[in-house]
Structures are given as C-alpha cells and as structure tokens.
Amino acid sequence: MTTSEALLKLEQLSRVFTVRRGLATSRFVAVDDVTLAIAADRPEILAVVGESGSGKTTLARMILGQVVPSAGHLHFKGRDMTRLSARERRIWFMKEVQPIFQDPFAAFSPLKKIESYLYETALNFGTATRATVDAHIDQALHTVGLSLKEIKGRYPNELSGGQMQRTAIARALTTNPSLLVADEPVSMLDASLRMAIVNSFRDLKQQQGVSVIYITHDLATAYYAADRIAVMLRGWVVELGPAEQVLGNPLHPYTQILKSSVPEPDPRMRWTEKVALARQELDEFSATGCKFATRCPFAMDVCSRVAPTNLVPDGRMVKCHLYDPAIPAAQKHRAGGAIPLTPVASTKAS
Ligand SMILES: Nc1ncnc2c1ncn2[C@@H]1O[C@H](COP(=O)(O)OP(=O)(O)OP(=O)(O)O)[C@@H](O)[C@H]1O
Ligand SMILES: [Mg+2]
User: Fold this and answer.
1) Residue-by-residue pLDDT tens, the chain, 350 positions
2) What is the C-alpha separation between 171 and 286, in angstroms, rounded?
3) Best label site of 121, 215, 242, 252, fewest CB within 10 Å?
4) Which residues have CB under 6 Å of ligand 1?
5) Do 220 and 293 sit in the same domain of this protein?
6) 125 and 29 fall within a common domain
7) Which one of the ligands is nearest to 286 CA?
8) Residues 191, 325: one domain?
C-alpha cells in the first residue's frame, strides 16, 4: 500500500524511553519497529491487544501526535505527521483523528451540561453552523443510539457510564473524523454495556466509513468487532492479521497464551512481586533475541540469541522463529511439536 492509498501508515515506528534502574539510567524501546497501515478506501476496526506494558498506549499517543516518535515514519492521508505545523495539527489533523478515552467522565466537568461539549466541539471545528448544529449533534448522537432530546439539559452524574461513553464517541463524531483512536474505551464498563460501544464502532465504520483503532484487554469484544487484530508484546507487534485468524487460530505462542488467559498484574500483589515483575518487563524489553523467549513454552536455542523477523506464513504477519522456513522443522518439533507449523512460505512482511 503506498502512502497516498493509506489512511494511516506506520513504518518502522519506534519510541525510546529512559528509566532509572538503581543509580543508573537505561533506555528501553516501548514501541519497537512497528509497521502497519489502514487503507483509505477500506475503513476498518483494528484492535490492538496485549498485556499491560506492551506499548499500546504509547503507540496510540504517537498516532494522536501526543508522543514524538524516536524513529520511523508516520503518515496520515499521505502527510508526514512529524512535519505538520502547529496550525495544521490544530485545524486539520485534530479534526480528522479523534481520541476516545478510558474514563468518559474524566473528559466532562460535572458542573457543565453535557450537550455544551458537543456544541462547542462542532462549532469550534467548523463542522456545523449555528443554523445546522442541532441537527448535526442529533445525528452524531443517533449513531451511538442516543438523541439530543435524551441528553439535553442533563449533567454527567445523570447518565450511566455506558451512556457517557457513547456521548463521548458522539462528541468525537461531531468533527466528522476519519479515524478514532480508542484506548481501552470499555474497560470501565460492565460486560453487558461493552457490546453497545463496540457495536457503535461497527455502525460507524459501515455507515460513515470511519476507521477505529480499538485498544483493549478484552479479547472477546476484539474478536467480535475487529476486522484485524494486532498483538503487542514489549513494544513489538508479534502477530497481525484478520481477527478470525489471529484469535481463531493464533500462531504466535504469546497470542496462544494471551487467548487462554490475559496475564494481568494482580492489584493485591506485594511490592516485592511488583519489583520482580518490573524487572522482568525491563529484561524482556532489552532482550537480544526474542522478547518472549524466557516465557515461551516452545523456545529454541536461536530464540534467546536472534530477534525474529516479520514472517508471513499464511497471509498474516507473525514475528516468531517457529515460522521461519530457514530453521529446520525437526528443531521446531523438538521445541513444541503441538504448534501448527503449516503452511510456511518464505515471504517477508514489508
Ligand atoms: N512517559 C514515559 N516515560 C517512561 N516510560 C514510559 C512512559 N510512558 C510509558 N512508559 C513505559 O512504556 C511501557 C509501555 O507502556 P504503555 O503505557 O504504552 O503500555 P500499555 O500496553 O498501554 O499498558 P496498559 O495495558 O497497562 O495500559 C511501560 O513499561 C511503561 O512503563
Ligand atoms: Mg495503556
């Protein structure tokens, strides 16, 4: 896909952070060499999944222009994002790419009527005039199953979490965006309300051609709503492809483990355990070979020494030596046996 055909194109995108480790500081790559694209003529829902600390939010913040990439390229509608002027960013880019946050209440003051946010956004971005703004807002609210009549005159504490998140999405829609970047938009909602949110993403895509980057820990809604899924591990995208392939028949051992149980830190964990986990996280981030090697049930000798490249065994991208045709099958079977190893083509992801 050329840059001009892409709505969004990330090429070898990386972000380095420095952290203190005892007296020393060390660098680690929170997003490491990520390449992916969303086509301009094919709106889609791209879910980004992965355990805590895998770089999902950092990736989202780079796409939103809130974190500056350390390396690589980021193009939106053919424009190099790192070269936008402050004015272009404010007038054009922020209208095109809208964020949706985890906590819908955080973006709304409890003292202000909810509809005022929608009016302000639509009028400030110039997507409606005084004469058209009511109809414009009502239409945005209808897309998420609400109406202006329902929210008019009401304050945030009068709406449920689910209604507030839908209002937040409607507010984002008033700028007529072509991309929403939603970072854990359902994690504070009950399971029963999550479907309403992801269904509104699907409606948006189908009815208005809006693409959505949907970051979540909830694999069930990712599977249900997303066209493609990108699985992140310590800054890498380790598997990327159609949702049915990635979660229906995961190839990367990390995706397989993620599917059986998302390893999340227990909030009641003792601080010594937290320190150990943070140390493991940093060690994995700075691994010379595969970042999953120490935890992988199928690890081979090569895994701790050499970082895997992006392979394309069956149309999806997988970053794992098990799918490298240059490594003898006998070696792979000794390591795992049970892992599905066919078909394996030698094409490399671009
Ligand atoms: N500004 C920063 N400075 C230093 N380190 C950072 C910064 N922002 C994020 N990190 C680190 O980068 C790594 C990736 O963090 P990020 O928030 O992107 O992960 P995540 O996948 O969104 O996690 P979660 O699922 O918990 O939201 C973590 O180790 C985090 O501590
Ligand atoms: Mg996050």
Assistant:
1) 776 689 999 999 999 999 887 788 888 899 999 999 999 999 999 999 999 999 999 999 999 999 999 999 999 999 999 899 999 998 899 999 999 999 999 989 999 999 999 999 999 999 999 999 999 999 999 988 899 999 999 999 999 999 999 999 999 999 999 999 999 999 888 887 888 899 999 999 999 999 999 999 999 999 999 999 999 999 999 999 999 999 999 999 999 999 887 555 566 666 667 677 777 777 788 788 999 999 999 999 999 999 999 999 889 999 999 999 998 888 887 776 445 544 343 333 33
2) 40
3) 242
4) 17, 19, 30, 50, 52-58, 281
5) no
6) yes
7) 1
8) no
* 279: enclosing H helix or E strand: helix 271-285
Residues 219 and 304 in one domain: no
Q: Which atom of ligand 1 is nearest to the CA of 59?
A: 18
**Residue of 14, 15, 16, 17 with the most ligand 1 atoms within 8 Å of its CB, for mutation:** 17
Count of domains for the chain = 2
Domain membership of residue 292 as a residue range: 287-335
> Which residues make beta-bridge pairs with 114?
none
Among the candidates 224, 248, 272, a domain finishes at 248
Q: Residue 300 C-alpha to ligand 2 middle, in angstroms?
A: 31
The number of residues in the chain equals 350
Tell me if 273 is assigned to some domain. no
- pLDDT of 268 reads 64
| Contact between residue 159 and residue 111 where contact means Cβ atoms under 8 Å apart | no
What is the DSSP annotation of 94-162? HHHEEEE-S-GGGGS-TTS-HHHHHHHHHHHTTSS-TTTHHHHHHHHHHHTT--HHHHTT--GGGS-HH
**35 and 87 belong to one structural domain:** yes
- Alpha carbons 321 and 250: distance in angstroms, whole number: 15
Ligand 1 atom showing the smallest separation from residue 215 Cα: 22
